[in-house]
């Protein structure tokens, strides 16, 4: 059930944030991908409060954040490929889904009753320090109301969740800016969500392409057609603006640009901030220039398609 609602504060103090987490409160914190809405993953009431604060319609499984590989290995069955992937990309923007180990202690609200668990070792220093200090595995979806744009600054978090969470730790803007890549360990290894680690990176490390997802029996918000949605109606792959549209370029030009130099890494880092900016400007119609569908561009285009999809 939801915690007592309180005014949110920017907690300067990591120790205090860790203490709040241990006490079953919700604390938003920065990772290198997006800000997460954290709760003690072993505390069912705390995890339930995540769903209430986000207004997430269903109990969809959450990612558990731990400070190191040992923490992950304690929770899921490990494979040779997991070893190679963790060695190459952790700490970093990669999530591994594996079969739960006996005695894992994670609340069944985190896994939505599945026998698998998604685990991630984030690299952002604030996230690392918080997880070590908290000493408990931390369940965290992106810290935004369900269906809205993911947050890449503490101000974004407050704009969506102020009054519903105990604190947000301000670690500045997120470096990667897109959610983690999610791999199911299988076998075979399957890519459930494109993200900060590209398909080519994965192929290089495991020696073959990650397969398309097999049926998981779950529908996750990030996999829904409409998600990451700003208030504006979006038109993609636009050569230029039509009357009344705000134009978001890739490269020079446009009212806003994902990256003036046409750099995919910068565009990924700026994407959600640009969508938030459209809302802040009260834009009702926006057109986006094409973004190359290679490397990080795949994850950018995935998020843009969902942001542009028709809403209910
Ligand atoms: O970068 C990220 O991954 C961010 C930061 C905060 O770590 N978190 C994030 O969480 O994006 P969220 O809840 O927005 O997305 C979690 C995704 C969902 O699409 C969910 O379906 C998938 O992880 N997931 C979680 N557990 C799973 C499982 N056992 N099997 C398959 N997919 C799972
Ligand atoms: Mg999300």
- The end-to-end span amounts to 27 Å
| Spatial extent as radius of gyration | 19 Å
The name of the CATH superfamily of the largest domain reads DHBP synthase
CATH fold-level topology of the largest domain:
DHBP synthase
Number of helical regions = 10
The molecules bound to the chains, other than polymers, are: threonylcarbamoyladenylate, magnesium ion
Largest sheet: 9 strands, mixed
What strand line-up does the widest sheet have?
A: 7-1-2-6-3-5-4-8-9
Total tally of structural domains:
2
Overall structural class, as computed from helix and strand content, comes to alpha/beta
- Secondary structure tally: strands: 13
Task: Give the CATH level 1 class of the largest domain.
Answer: Alpha Beta
Residue share in helices? 25-40%
Query: In what range is the share of β-strand residues?
Result: 15-25%
SSE pattern:
HEEHEHHEHEHEHEEEHEEEHEH
Shape: globular
- The pLDDT mean sits at 91
CATH architectural type of the largest domain: Alpha-Beta Complex
Q: Spans of 5+ residues with little confidence (pLDDT < 50)?
A: 1-6
């Amino acid at each position: 059930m939801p915690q007592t609602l309180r005014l949110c504060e920017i907690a300067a103090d990591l120790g205090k944030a860790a203490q709040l987490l241990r006490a079953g409160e919700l604390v938003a914190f920065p990772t290198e991908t997006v800000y997460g809405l954290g709760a003690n993953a072993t505390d069912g009431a705390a995890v339930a409060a995540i769903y209430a604060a986000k207004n997430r319609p269903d109990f969809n499984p959450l990612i558990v954040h731990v400070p190191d590989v040992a923490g992950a290995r304690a929770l899921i069955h490990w494979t040779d490929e997991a070893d190679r992937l963790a060695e190459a990309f952790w700490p970093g923007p990669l999530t591994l889904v594996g079969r739960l180990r006996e005695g894992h202690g994670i609340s069944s609200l985190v896994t939505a009753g599945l026998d698998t668990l998604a685990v991630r070792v984030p690299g952002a220093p604030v996230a690392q320090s918080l997880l070590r200090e908290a000493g408990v595995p931390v369940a965290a979806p992106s810290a935004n109301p369900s269906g809205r744009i993911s947050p890449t600054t503490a101000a974004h978090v407050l704009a969506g969740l102020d009054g519903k969470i105990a604190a947000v730790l301000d670690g500045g803007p997120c470096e990667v800016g897109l959610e983690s890549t999610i791999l199911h360990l299988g076998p075979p290894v399957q890519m459930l969500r494109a993200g900060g680690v590209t398909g080519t990176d994965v192929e290089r490390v495991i020696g073959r392409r990650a397969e398309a997802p097999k049926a998981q029996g779950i529908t996750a918000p990030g996999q829904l057609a409409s998600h990451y949605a700003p208030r504006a109606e979006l038109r993609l792959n636009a050569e230029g603006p039509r009357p009344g549209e705000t134009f978001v370029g890739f490269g020079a030009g446009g009212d806003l640009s994902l990256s003036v130099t046409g750099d995919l890494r910068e565009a990924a880092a700026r994407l959600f901030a640009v969508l938030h900016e459209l809302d802040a400007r009260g834009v009702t119609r926006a057109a986006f220039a094409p973004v190359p569908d290679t490397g990080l561009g795949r994850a950018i285009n995935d998020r843009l398609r969902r942001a542009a999809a028709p809403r209910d």
